Amino acid sequence: MRRTRSGPSIREFLKYYLLVLLAEKAQTKQELVQQIKQRSADNRTYRTTGVVWPAGSEMDRVLDGLAEDGLVRPPKRGYKWRITDSGKQTLAERGKQQEETDGKERAAEKLVELLETAPANACVLDVGTGAGFLALKLAERGFRVVGIDSGSFDYSKDSLGEAREEATRRGGDVEFRQIDIATLAESHERFDYVVSSQAVHCMDDQPACLEAIHTLLKPEGRFLCVDFLVGSDGFIRHGFHCFLAFSREEWVERLIECGFVNIRMHEMCDYLLVECEKA
Ligand SMILES: C[S@@+](CC[C@H](N)C(=O)[O-])C[C@H]1O[C@@H](n2cnc3c(N)ncnc32)[C@H](O)[C@@H]1O
Protein backbone atom coordinates (compact mmCIF):
# COMPACT_ATOMS: atom_id res chain seq x y z
CA MET A 1 0.00 0.00 0.00
CA ARG A 2 1.38 3.43 -0.91
CA ARG A 3 2.07 5.82 1.99
CA THR A 4 0.85 9.07 0.43
CA ARG A 5 -2.26 9.84 -1.59
CA SER A 6 -3.20 12.48 -4.13
CA GLY A 7 -5.92 13.32 -6.65
CA PRO A 8 -9.13 15.41 -6.81
CA SER A 9 -10.98 13.50 -4.03
CA ILE A 10 -8.06 13.88 -1.63
CA ARG A 11 -7.92 17.59 -2.46
CA GLU A 12 -11.66 17.97 -1.84
CA PHE A 13 -11.22 16.20 1.52
CA LEU A 14 -8.26 18.44 2.44
CA LYS A 15 -10.11 21.61 1.45
CA TYR A 16 -12.52 20.93 4.27
CA TYR A 17 -10.24 19.15 6.72
CA LEU A 18 -7.51 21.79 6.76
CA LEU A 19 -10.15 24.39 7.67
CA VAL A 20 -11.27 22.11 10.52
CA LEU A 21 -7.69 21.81 11.82
CA LEU A 22 -6.97 25.54 11.46
CA ALA A 23 -10.24 26.43 13.21
CA GLU A 24 -8.85 24.55 16.24
CA LYS A 25 -5.58 26.58 16.23
CA ALA A 26 -3.11 28.33 13.93
CA GLN A 27 -0.45 25.88 12.76
CA THR A 28 2.63 25.48 10.58
CA LYS A 29 2.41 23.19 7.56
CA GLN A 30 4.63 20.66 9.40
CA GLU A 31 2.21 20.66 12.37
CA LEU A 32 -0.73 20.12 10.03
CA VAL A 33 1.03 17.19 8.33
CA GLN A 34 1.92 15.77 11.75
CA GLN A 35 -1.72 15.94 12.89
CA ILE A 36 -2.93 14.22 9.73
CA LYS A 37 -0.31 11.48 10.17
CA GLN A 38 -1.46 11.04 13.78
CA ARG A 39 -5.14 10.78 12.78
CA SER A 40 -4.15 8.40 10.02
CA ALA A 41 -2.26 6.23 12.54
CA ASP A 42 -5.39 6.17 14.77
CA ASN A 43 -7.11 4.43 11.87
CA ARG A 44 -5.01 1.34 12.70
CA THR A 45 -7.87 0.39 15.03
CA TYR A 46 -9.89 -0.33 11.90
CA ARG A 47 -7.16 -1.54 9.55
CA THR A 48 -3.53 -2.27 10.36
CA THR A 49 -2.43 -0.88 6.99
CA GLY A 50 -4.35 2.35 7.56
CA VAL A 51 -1.40 4.72 7.77
CA VAL A 52 -1.59 6.91 4.69
CA TRP A 53 -1.55 10.68 4.37
CA PRO A 54 -1.89 13.29 1.63
CA ALA A 55 1.19 14.00 -0.51
CA GLY A 56 3.05 17.23 0.45
CA SER A 57 2.36 18.70 -2.99
CA GLU A 58 -1.42 18.28 -2.40
CA MET A 59 -1.12 20.02 0.99
CA ASP A 60 0.67 22.99 -0.65
CA ARG A 61 -1.82 23.17 -3.49
CA VAL A 62 -4.85 23.13 -1.19
CA LEU A 63 -3.38 25.63 1.31
CA ASP A 64 -2.53 28.01 -1.56
CA GLY A 65 -6.05 27.61 -3.00
CA LEU A 66 -7.66 28.30 0.40
CA ALA A 67 -5.47 31.41 0.76
CA GLU A 68 -6.47 32.62 -2.72
CA ASP A 69 -10.15 32.23 -1.72
CA GLY A 70 -9.47 34.25 1.46
CA LEU A 71 -10.37 31.34 3.74
CA VAL A 72 -6.94 31.07 5.38
CA ARG A 73 -4.06 33.51 5.90
CA PRO A 74 -0.57 32.32 4.85
CA PRO A 75 2.24 32.43 7.40
CA LYS A 76 4.17 35.68 7.85
CA ARG A 77 5.85 36.19 11.22
CA GLY A 78 5.46 33.12 13.42
CA TYR A 79 5.22 30.80 10.35
CA LYS A 80 1.68 29.65 11.11
CA TRP A 81 -1.33 29.29 8.83
CA ARG A 82 -4.51 30.84 10.29
CA ILE A 83 -8.19 30.54 9.43
CA THR A 84 -9.93 33.81 8.50
CA ASP A 85 -13.46 34.85 9.56
CA SER A 86 -14.60 33.99 6.07
CA GLY A 87 -13.02 30.53 6.50
CA LYS A 88 -14.89 30.02 9.80
CA GLN A 89 -18.15 31.03 8.11
CA THR A 90 -17.55 28.64 5.19
CA LEU A 91 -16.87 25.83 7.65
CA ALA A 92 -20.06 26.49 9.62
CA GLU A 93 -22.19 26.71 6.45
CA ARG A 94 -20.64 23.55 4.99
CA GLY A 95 -21.47 21.62 8.17
CA LYS A 96 -25.11 22.76 7.99
CA GLN A 97 -25.45 21.84 4.29
CA GLN A 98 -25.00 18.16 5.04
CA GLU A 99 -28.07 16.26 3.93
CA GLU A 100 -30.03 14.49 6.66
CA THR A 101 -30.67 11.45 4.44
CA ASP A 102 -28.97 8.15 5.22
CA GLY A 103 -26.41 7.69 2.44
CA LYS A 104 -25.75 4.04 3.31
CA GLU A 105 -29.42 3.11 3.03
CA ARG A 106 -29.81 5.12 -0.20
CA ALA A 107 -26.75 3.50 -1.74
CA ALA A 108 -28.05 0.05 -0.77
CA GLU A 109 -31.43 0.84 -2.37
CA LYS A 110 -29.65 1.91 -5.56
CA LEU A 111 -27.57 -1.29 -5.49
CA VAL A 112 -30.73 -3.41 -5.23
CA GLU A 113 -32.27 -1.36 -8.08
CA LEU A 114 -29.20 -2.04 -10.27
CA LEU A 115 -29.77 -5.77 -9.75
CA GLU A 116 -33.39 -5.56 -10.92
CA THR A 117 -32.55 -7.02 -14.35
CA ALA A 118 -30.63 -9.95 -12.82
CA PRO A 119 -32.21 -13.42 -13.16
CA ALA A 120 -34.13 -14.30 -10.00
CA ASN A 121 -32.08 -17.45 -9.35
CA ALA A 122 -28.75 -15.60 -9.63
CA CYS A 123 -26.25 -16.39 -6.89
CA VAL A 124 -24.89 -13.41 -4.95
CA LEU A 125 -21.94 -13.25 -2.57
CA ASP A 126 -21.99 -10.50 0.09
CA VAL A 127 -18.43 -9.88 1.28
CA GLY A 128 -17.94 -8.52 4.82
CA THR A 129 -21.63 -9.09 5.46
CA GLY A 130 -21.50 -8.28 9.20
CA ALA A 131 -25.07 -8.59 10.49
CA GLY A 132 -26.28 -9.21 6.92
CA PHE A 133 -27.24 -5.64 5.98
CA LEU A 134 -27.14 -6.32 2.20
CA ALA A 135 -27.46 -10.10 2.19
CA LEU A 136 -30.87 -10.01 3.90
CA LYS A 137 -32.21 -7.31 1.56
CA LEU A 138 -31.13 -9.35 -1.50
CA ALA A 139 -32.53 -12.62 -0.11
CA GLU A 140 -35.88 -10.85 0.33
CA ARG A 141 -35.72 -10.00 -3.40
CA GLY A 142 -35.47 -13.69 -4.28
CA PHE A 143 -31.71 -14.06 -4.88
CA ARG A 144 -29.70 -16.99 -3.58
CA VAL A 145 -27.28 -15.27 -1.22
CA VAL A 146 -24.11 -16.32 0.59
CA GLY A 147 -22.94 -13.77 3.18
CA ILE A 148 -19.35 -14.15 4.38
CA ASP A 149 -17.46 -12.41 7.14
CA SER A 150 -14.01 -13.00 8.60
CA GLY A 151 -15.21 -11.82 12.04
CA SER A 152 -11.91 -9.91 12.25
CA PHE A 153 -13.06 -7.16 14.62
CA ASP A 154 -14.30 -7.27 18.19
CA TYR A 155 -17.56 -5.71 17.06
CA SER A 156 -17.99 -8.18 14.19
CA LYS A 157 -17.43 -11.41 16.17
CA ASP A 158 -21.15 -11.82 16.99
CA SER A 159 -22.47 -10.27 13.77
CA LEU A 160 -22.98 -13.55 11.91
CA GLY A 161 -25.09 -14.89 14.80
CA GLU A 162 -27.30 -11.79 14.53
CA ALA A 163 -27.48 -12.23 10.75
CA ARG A 164 -28.60 -15.88 11.09
CA GLU A 165 -31.28 -14.96 13.64
CA GLU A 166 -32.59 -12.20 11.39
CA ALA A 167 -32.59 -14.58 8.39
CA THR A 168 -34.75 -17.05 10.34
CA ARG A 169 -37.19 -14.20 11.05
CA ARG A 170 -37.23 -12.68 7.55
CA GLY A 171 -36.86 -15.84 5.45
CA GLY A 172 -35.22 -16.18 2.04
CA ASP A 173 -32.46 -18.32 0.55
CA VAL A 174 -29.48 -17.03 2.51
CA GLU A 175 -26.51 -18.73 4.13
CA PHE A 176 -23.93 -17.06 6.39
CA ARG A 177 -20.37 -18.34 6.76
CA GLN A 178 -17.39 -17.22 8.80
CA ILE A 179 -14.53 -17.16 6.29
CA ASP A 180 -12.04 -14.67 4.89
CA ILE A 181 -12.56 -13.60 1.27
CA ALA A 182 -9.03 -14.74 0.30
CA THR A 183 -9.70 -18.26 1.68
CA LEU A 184 -13.04 -18.51 -0.15
CA ALA A 185 -11.30 -17.54 -3.42
CA GLU A 186 -9.13 -20.68 -3.09
CA SER A 187 -12.30 -22.84 -3.41
CA HIS A 188 -14.04 -23.67 -6.70
CA GLU A 189 -17.17 -21.71 -5.83
CA ARG A 190 -18.04 -18.93 -8.30
CA PHE A 191 -20.84 -16.31 -8.18
CA ASP A 192 -22.91 -14.27 -10.66
CA TYR A 193 -22.63 -11.17 -8.46
CA VAL A 194 -20.40 -10.05 -5.63
CA VAL A 195 -21.69 -7.21 -3.47
CA SER A 196 -20.27 -5.45 -0.45
CA SER A 197 -21.31 -2.67 1.92
CA GLN A 198 -18.92 -0.61 4.00
CA ALA A 199 -16.37 -3.43 4.16
CA VAL A 200 -13.59 -2.87 1.61
CA HIS A 201 -12.19 0.08 3.59
CA CYS A 202 -11.46 -2.19 6.57
CA MET A 203 -9.92 -5.10 4.67
CA ASP A 204 -6.26 -5.44 5.63
CA ASP A 205 -4.92 -6.26 2.18
CA GLN A 206 -7.28 -4.36 -0.11
CA PRO A 207 -5.55 -5.19 -3.43
CA ALA A 208 -5.60 -8.92 -2.53
CA CYS A 209 -9.28 -8.70 -1.53
CA LEU A 210 -10.20 -7.11 -4.86
CA GLU A 211 -8.24 -9.83 -6.67
CA ALA A 212 -10.16 -12.42 -4.64
CA ILE A 213 -13.48 -10.78 -5.56
CA HIS A 214 -12.47 -10.88 -9.24
CA THR A 215 -11.55 -14.58 -8.93
CA LEU A 216 -14.86 -15.41 -7.22
CA LEU A 217 -16.94 -13.97 -10.06
CA LYS A 218 -18.05 -16.00 -13.07
CA PRO A 219 -17.05 -14.48 -16.45
CA GLU A 220 -19.11 -11.30 -17.04
CA GLY A 221 -20.13 -11.37 -13.39
CA ARG A 222 -20.68 -8.01 -11.68
CA PHE A 223 -19.22 -6.44 -8.55
CA LEU A 224 -21.28 -3.77 -6.78
CA CYS A 225 -19.73 -2.11 -3.78
CA VAL A 226 -20.84 0.57 -1.33
CA ASP A 227 -18.24 2.29 0.83
CA PHE A 228 -17.44 5.67 2.38
CA LEU A 229 -17.01 8.62 0.06
CA VAL A 230 -13.55 10.16 0.42
CA GLY A 231 -14.36 13.86 0.55
CA SER A 232 -15.93 16.43 2.82
CA ASP A 233 -19.36 14.71 2.97
CA GLY A 234 -17.69 11.46 4.04
CA PHE A 235 -15.57 13.34 6.58
CA ILE A 236 -18.47 15.27 8.12
CA ARG A 237 -20.37 12.01 8.77
CA HIS A 238 -17.55 9.56 9.51
CA GLY A 239 -14.56 11.66 10.55
CA PHE A 240 -11.10 10.60 9.53
CA HIS A 241 -12.33 6.99 9.32
CA CYS A 242 -13.60 7.76 5.78
CA PHE A 243 -9.98 8.33 4.72
CA LEU A 244 -9.51 4.52 4.80
CA ALA A 245 -11.79 4.08 1.80
CA PHE A 246 -10.57 4.28 -1.81
CA SER A 247 -11.10 7.62 -3.50
CA ARG A 248 -12.92 7.62 -6.87
CA GLU A 249 -9.57 7.75 -8.70
CA GLU A 250 -8.08 4.92 -6.61
CA TRP A 251 -11.13 2.73 -7.25
CA VAL A 252 -10.69 3.11 -11.01
CA GLU A 253 -6.96 2.39 -10.82
CA ARG A 254 -7.39 -0.69 -8.59
CA LEU A 255 -10.34 -2.17 -10.50
CA ILE A 256 -8.60 -1.83 -13.86
CA GLU A 257 -5.49 -3.48 -12.37
CA CYS A 258 -7.67 -6.48 -11.37
CA GLY A 259 -9.20 -6.76 -14.86
CA PHE A 260 -12.62 -5.18 -14.21
CA VAL A 261 -14.34 -3.20 -17.01
CA ASN A 262 -17.39 -0.90 -17.40
CA ILE A 263 -16.71 0.94 -14.15
CA ARG A 264 -19.47 3.32 -13.04
CA MET A 265 -19.88 5.29 -9.82
CA HIS A 266 -22.78 6.90 -7.99
CA GLU A 267 -22.32 9.34 -5.12
CA MET A 268 -25.01 9.07 -2.47
CA CYS A 269 -24.37 11.75 0.13
CA ASP A 270 -21.54 10.33 2.28
CA TYR A 271 -21.28 7.00 0.40
CA LEU A 272 -19.98 5.90 -2.99
CA LEU A 273 -21.55 3.05 -4.94
CA VAL A 274 -19.14 1.47 -7.43
CA GLU A 275 -20.25 -1.02 -10.09
CA CYS A 276 -18.10 -2.92 -12.59
CA GLU A 277 -17.89 -6.18 -14.52
CA LYS A 278 -15.44 -9.01 -14.93
CA ALA A 279 -14.32 -8.99 -18.58
C1 LIG B 1 -18.01 -2.25 8.86
S1 LIG B 1 -18.48 -3.91 8.72
C2 LIG B 1 -19.79 -3.81 7.54
C3 LIG B 1 -20.89 -4.81 7.80
C4 LIG B 1 -22.07 -4.77 6.83
N1 LIG B 1 -21.69 -5.12 5.48
C5 LIG B 1 -22.78 -3.43 6.87
O1 LIG B 1 -22.82 -2.73 5.84
O2 LIG B 1 -23.33 -3.09 7.91
C6 LIG B 1 -17.16 -4.63 7.76
C7 LIG B 1 -17.09 -6.14 7.90
O3 LIG B 1 -16.10 -6.64 6.99
C8 LIG B 1 -15.53 -7.79 7.59
N2 LIG B 1 -14.23 -8.10 6.93
C9 LIG B 1 -13.09 -7.37 7.00
N3 LIG B 1 -12.11 -7.97 6.28
C10 LIG B 1 -12.67 -9.08 5.73
C11 LIG B 1 -12.16 -10.12 4.88
N4 LIG B 1 -10.89 -10.11 4.48
N5 LIG B 1 -12.99 -11.12 4.49
C12 LIG B 1 -14.30 -11.12 4.91
N6 LIG B 1 -14.82 -10.17 5.73
C13 LIG B 1 -14.03 -9.17 6.13
C14 LIG B 1 -15.40 -7.41 9.07
O4 LIG B 1 -15.30 -8.53 9.90
C15 LIG B 1 -16.70 -6.60 9.29
O5 LIG B 1 -17.73 -7.40 9.81
Give a description of the structure.
The chain is α/β, with parallel strands linked by helices. It folds into 2 domains: 4-97, Winged helix-like DNA-binding domain superfamily/Winged helix DNA-binding domain (Arc Repressor Mutant, subunit A, Orthogonal Bundle), CATH 1.10.10.10; 103-278, Vaccinia Virus protein VP39 (Rossmann fold, 3-Layer(aba) Sandwich), CATH 3.40.50. The chain contains 11 helices and 11 strands. The protein has helices at 8-24, 29-42, 56-68, 85-97, 103-114, 133-140, 159-170, 181-185, 206-216, 232-238, 248-258, and strands spanning 4-5, 53-54, 72-73, 82-83, 123-127, 144-149, 174-178, 191-197, 217-228, 260-268, 271-278. The strands form 3 sheets. A 7-stranded mixed β-sheet has the order 7-6-5-8-9-11-10, with helices on both faces. The model has no long low-confidence stretch (mean pLDDT 92). Residues 127-130, 133, 148-153, 156, 159, 180-181, 197-199, 202-203, 209 line the site of S-adenosylmethionine. S-adenosylmethionine binds next to β6.
Topology:
Blueprint: E1 4-5, H1 8-24, H2 29-42, E2 53-54, H3 56-68, E3 72-73, E4 82-83, H4 85-97, H5 103-114, E5 123-127, H6 133-140, E6 144-149, H7 159-170, E7 174-178, H8 181-185, E8 191-197, H9 206-216, E9 217-228, H10 232-238, H11 248-258, E10 260-268, E11 271-278
Parallel strand pairs: 1-2, 5-6, 5-8, 6-7, 8-9
Antiparallel strand pairs: 3-4, 9-11, 10-11
Helix pairs in contact: 1-3, 1-10
